[in-house]
C-alpha cells in the first residue's frame, strides 16, 4: 500500500483536510509516480476504493507467499539446517538445532518442483509470472539479522505500541520462552564466553549461515563472542523454524480461500480513474481456474502432518540429557501457559487468532 496525497492536497494543512475528509489518512495510490491517470483512492470512492484494496491484497499475497513465507522461513530454515548438520552428534546443541530442520528439505524440494519451477504455480497462476527468482534474489539482499529477531524487528517497524496486535504479543511470549530455554541449555554447556569462542563447530555453523544465508552482510554475525550472543542466535533459528513459520503458514486457507481477499493475479490493469463498477471488479479478479488452483495450494499448505511433533518435544534420549532436562521441563510449562492464555482470549473473539498457539506449531517447517 502506498500512502500519498495529491499535489493539491499537499498544499492544504492536514487539520483542514481531516475535517473535510475524515478518512484522509486511509488512502491508496497504486503506482509510485503521481499523475492524472494514477488517482489517490479513499473510502469515499465506493467501488473504486474496493478495487484499490483488492489490488493491495494482490500485492500482499505475492509478497507474503514468496518473501515472508518461502524465503524468510522455508529457505532460511534450509540454510540453518544444512549449517547445523556438520556438528557432531555429541555436540550439546546439535540435536536441538537438527530438530529445527525435520522434513524441511523434502518440503522445500517439493516447492522447487511445483511452485517456483518453470511452469509451476507462481509462473502460471500469479502476478509474479516467471520473475519469481528475481524477486527472491532482491528480497534475499534485504534480509538482515535483526529482521529475523522479533524484539528487534518490532522496534524497527515501530509496531511495539499497536493495540490488539496478537501476532506481536503471542510471538514475543514464544520468543521469550525459547530464549529462556536456550539460555538454560547454553549456560549449562558453556561455563563462560571463552567457551563459546573456542567452539569450532558452533563458529563454523555461524560462518556458513553468514556466507550462504546472510550473503556476508556487515550487519549480520559471522561469529559469536559471548554466551548471550549465542543464546540470541539460536533463539532466532528456533523461532524462525517454529513460531514465525506458523504465523505466515497456518492461516493461508483462512485468508486466501476467499479470492478477493488475496487474489494471486489480476486480469485487468489498475484503474486509471474512479469510475469503477461491479463488473469492472469481477472482470479484474482471477478466473475460476486460477481461483481453484490457488485454493488448492492454500489448502495443501495449511495441512498438519500425521506425525506432528509440537514445539518443545524431543526424543527421550535428548530430553533427558543433563543439560536439557530442567530447561526443557520449564520450557514446556511456559508454552502450555501461553497456549492457555491464547485460548482464553479466543473465547471472547468473533474471529480468534490462534495461529501462534504453541500446541499447533512444530519445532520445524514440515509443510
Automatic annotation (TrEMBL):
GO terms for biological process: lipid oxidation. Pfam families: Lipoxygenase (PF00305). Keywords: Dioxygenase, Iron, Metal-binding, Oxidoreductase. Transmembrane segments: none annotated. It comes from the Eukaryota. PROSITE patterns: LIPOXYGENASE_1, LIPOXYGENASE_3. GO terms for molecular function: metal ion binding; oxidoreductase activity, acting on single donors with incorporation of molecular oxygen, incorporation of two atoms of oxygen. Residues 1-367 form the Lipoxygenase domain. The keyword Iron applies. Its cofactor is Fe cation. Coiled coil: none annotated. PANTHER family: LIPOXYGENASE. Belongs to the lipoxygenase family. This is Lipoxygenase domain-containing protein. It comes from Conger conger (Conger eel).
Amino acid at each position: 500500500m502506498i500512502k500519498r496525497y495529491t499535489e493539491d492536497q499537499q498544499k492544504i494543512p492536514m487539520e483542514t483536510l481531516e475535517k473535510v475528509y475524515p478518512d484522509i489518512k486511509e488512502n491508496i495510490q497504486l503506482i509510485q509516480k503521481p499523475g492524472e491517470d494514477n488517482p489517490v483512492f479513499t473510502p469515499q470512492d465506493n467501488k473504486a476504493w474496493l478495487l484499490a484494496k483488492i489490488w493491495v491484497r494482490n500485492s500482499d499475497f505475492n509478497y507474503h507467499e514468496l518473501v515472508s513465507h518461502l524465503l524468510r522461513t522455508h529457505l532460511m530454515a534450509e540454510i540453518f539446517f544444512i549449517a547445523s548438520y556438520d556438528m557432531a552428534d555429541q555436540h550439546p546443541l546439535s540435536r536441538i538445532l537438527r530438530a529445527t530442520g525435520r522434513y524441511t528439505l523434502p518440503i522445500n524440494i517439493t516447492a522447487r518442483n511445483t511452485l517456483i519451477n518453470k511452469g509451476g504455480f507462481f509462473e502460471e497462476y500469479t502476478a509474479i509470472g516467471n520473475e519469481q527468482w528475481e524477486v527472491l534474489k532482491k528480497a534475499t539482499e534485504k534480509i538482515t539479522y535483526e529482521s529475523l529477531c522479533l524484539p528487534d524487528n518490532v522496534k524497527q517497524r515501530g509496531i511495539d505500541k499497536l493495540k490488539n496486535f496478537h501476532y506481536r504479543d503471542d510471538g514475543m511470549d514464544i520468543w521469550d520462552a525459547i530464549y529462556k530455554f536456550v539460555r538454560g541449555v547454553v549456560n549449562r554447556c558453556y561455563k563462560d564466553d571463552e567457551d563459546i569462542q573456542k567452539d569450532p563447530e558452533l563458529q563454523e555453523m555461524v560462518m556458513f549461515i553468514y556466507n550462504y544465508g546472510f550473503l556476508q552482510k556487515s550487519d549480520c554475525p559471522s561469529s559469536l563472542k559471548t554466551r548471550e550472543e549465542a543464546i540470541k542466535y539460536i533463539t532466532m533459528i528456533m523461532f524462525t523454524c517454529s513460531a514465525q513459520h506458523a504465523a505466515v503458514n497456518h492461516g493461508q486457507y483462512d485468508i486466501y480461500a476467499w479470492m478477493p481477499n488475496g487474489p494471486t493475479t489480476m486480469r485487468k490493469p489498475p484503474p486509471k480513474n474512479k469510475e469503477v463498477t461491479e463488473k469492472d471488479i469481477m472482470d479484474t479478479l482471477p478466473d475460476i481456474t486460477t481461483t481453484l488452483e490457488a485454493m488448492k495450494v492454500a489448502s495443501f499448505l495449511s495441512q498438519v502432518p500425521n506425525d506432528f511433533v509440537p514445539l518443545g518435544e524431543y526424543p527421550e534420549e535428548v530430553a533427558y540429557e543433563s543439560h536439557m532436562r530442567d530447561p526443557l521441563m520449564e520450557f514446556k510449562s511456559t508454552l502450555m501457559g501461553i497456549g492457555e492464555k491464547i485460548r482464553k482470549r479466543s473465547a471472547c473473539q468473533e474471529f480468534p487468532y490462534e495461529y501462534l498457539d504453541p500446541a499447533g506449531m512444530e519445532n520445524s517447517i514440515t509443510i
